[in-house]
Structures are given as structure tokens and as C-alpha cells.
Amino acid sequence: MSVLLTEVREFVGVMTLNRPEKHNAMNAEMFVRMAETWEAWATDPNVRCAVITGAGERAFSAGGDLGSLIPVLTRARPPQDQFEATLLETHPRVRDVAMLRTFFPKPVIAAINGFCIAGGTEVIEGTDIRICTESATFGLPEVKRAILPAGGSLVRLTRQMPFCRAMEVILTGRSITAQEALEYGFVNYVTPREQLLAKAMEIAREISENGPLAVAAAKKAMIETSGMPLEQAYLIEDKAWDVVANSEDAKEGPLAFMEKRRPVYRGC
């Protein structure tokens, strides 16, 4: 069985980390397949939004597989299969794409079905909207092992929750609960387990019904202008407007509104 399950449902790509017996810990094969999928979906017109989740009842992901992934990356042992060899040859590019450190142009929704630790937390830092179960926990325990959460957390976490909260999470290595994550603004919703994927798909479908060029341009501009002086940021916003306003979809949206019908967007 594949360590990564993927499918596309009505313009929504669904990615499932599929090693439940290992708490969906990411090994070399999963990293490589995640990177391949994100790269394919980035240019696939049939994918307008993506959802990432984990298989099983207990975990979204326990992070990198300490027994297989880390020994390869630290060269403690030679690669034992094609995925380990590929990861070693192409790291850190594959890592950056797999963990969404490289910009992904379409909205990504995380459906977090349990504990989400270390690299698991770092993956969802690359997502745009987050829903978790009531039993979910988040944490970056790397400093407890005298290493760093360097999959993006040292850069992204202070931008995604209050500065002092981010410092506490990283410097103590303690986990936080779903309710704390909600209070910190790190997740959007906390839901019962049985409603998790349905809620994620509801939001994903709502997004995918919108103009895909407008959605992609909005995401890109908001990320690019984060922390930028207003004068420079407005120039990027104006450029995004110019590109989207000259599209066929920008004509279709108002026309469909006037004709009282659902718009048919083609992404051009």
C-alpha cells in the first residue's frame, strides 16, 4: 500500500499521509511522493484547492521518521532504496517542496486528525486554512533532543501566532492543545473527529467555486506583501489586480451575477 494516497474530487486535490501504524511519520518515500504531488498539482487546472490529512484515528503526523529518514539525511547509513537515494540527491529541494516551504500557488487546507508533532506541525505551517479535531495536539519538541525545528518553524511560527507564544512553543518544546492552537490563531476551527474531513471539504469546495485566477493571485499577493511597507505592498496588489482584471474569468463573474446564474470559470 502506498505511503501517500491522492485523489482529485471536484477540483479539490486530497492528499492523505498513509502510515497510520507509524503515526504517519514521514519516511523518504513519503517525502518524495509528497513533493511530486505538490509539483503536479501546482500546474493542474483540475486542482483549484488542496486538502492534506492523515490516515487513521490518532495522528496527522509524528514528523520525520527518526528510524529511517534522519539516518539517511545525516548520512549515518547509505540509502537503501530508490526513494532514499532520490531524497539524498535532491535534498533540500524535495524537503522544501514536500513541506510547503516552497510557494504553492493554490490554497491548501489542513485537516488535522490527531497529534501533529515536529515535522507534522511544520508541514501545516505551510498550509493556509487549518481544521483540527478536539483531541489534536501540536508541538515542536526538537530542542529537547538538542536539535532545531528547521523545517520552517524558526521563520514561520512567529508570523502565524503571537510572538511570545511562538517563542514558548519552540523554546520549551512543550505541546499545545487544540483549544490553545485556536486561541493562538494557529488553527481556524476545532471540530469533532467525524466532522473533520467534511468541514475541510466544505471550505475547499467553496474556494474551488471561486475564480481560480483571483484566488491564486490573492494568495500570492497576501504572502508576498506580509511585513512589507505599505507603499511597496500596494504596488504588488495593483499588479495582481491588473493581471486578474484582464482575464476572461473577470468578465464571466460579473456577467453571471447580472444574469442570475452560476459562473463558469476556466482559469484564463
Automatic annotation (TrEMBL):
A Pfam entry, by short name: ECH_1
Domain of life the protein comes from: Bacteria
InterPro entries linked: ClpP/crotonase-like_dom_sf, Enoyl-CoA_hydra/iso, Enoyl-CoA_hydra_C
Record keywords: Lipid metabolism, Lyase
Transmembrane segments: none
Family: Belongs to the enoyl-CoA hydratase/isomerase family.
Record's protein name: Crotonase/enoyl-CoA hydratase family protein
Lineage start: Bacteria, Pseudomonadati, Pseudomonadota, Betaproteobacteria, Burkholderiales
